[in-house]
Design brief:
Blueprint lengths: L7 E5 L7 H4 L13 H4 L3 E12 L2 E13 L5 E12 L5 E13 L4 E12 L4 E11 L4 E3 L5 E6 L2 E6 L1 E4 L4 E4 L3 E5 L4 H13 L1
Antiparallel strand pairs: 1-2, 2-3, 3-4, 4-5, 5-6, 6-7, 7-8, 7-9, 8-11, 9-10, 10-13, 11-12
Length: 201
Amino acid sequence: MKKVSKKTFSLKRAGLVMGAVLLSFSCSLKYDETVSVEERIPEFVFQDTSMVRCDENKVTFEMSAGVLEQYKKSSETFAKDVSFISYDDEGQISTEGQCGFLFSDTDKKLYELYDDIKLYNRSENTKFFANILRWNEKNEQLTSGRGEMVKVEKEDTVMRGTGFSASGVSKTFSFRGTVSGEIETKSQEENQEEIEEESEE
């Protein structure tokens, strides 16, 4: 994602919980250690919400979440049951994805995805499956934990490995750990059917 100078957010179907209700919200999505009650309790909680980010009147990002929490005096956001779509400069869908949990820090341009992650990069026709992934918007790097398994599907090739890293700049990815893979080949009958379809056209 590129750095944007002007952002507009619109929230749809948002269930806003504030004040005393927040004090009774016992199951926060923020699991890390906190210093004060202000940091522990979310300032805003949205239920079944959709968020749209725009840059110069163009939609650049859409996200839907079952629960979304924002904290006071913080650029951190936590979300559960997330699905999202990002768009390129031409307004075409660039990447689609979903995950169980999402943590974002907009000041640091850092995003962490957890649990049953599925990403599909349309321009590269590549799918990614993992349980932990981190996206650094500043250097456009997508990485996994050193020992975390990531599966990549591209056309007829399926690869699995640890120490995954992908660059949004060079459009390449690599594994630093153990890697296994397979290439699916079509049967003679499937190839023959494709040839016949092409000849009919």
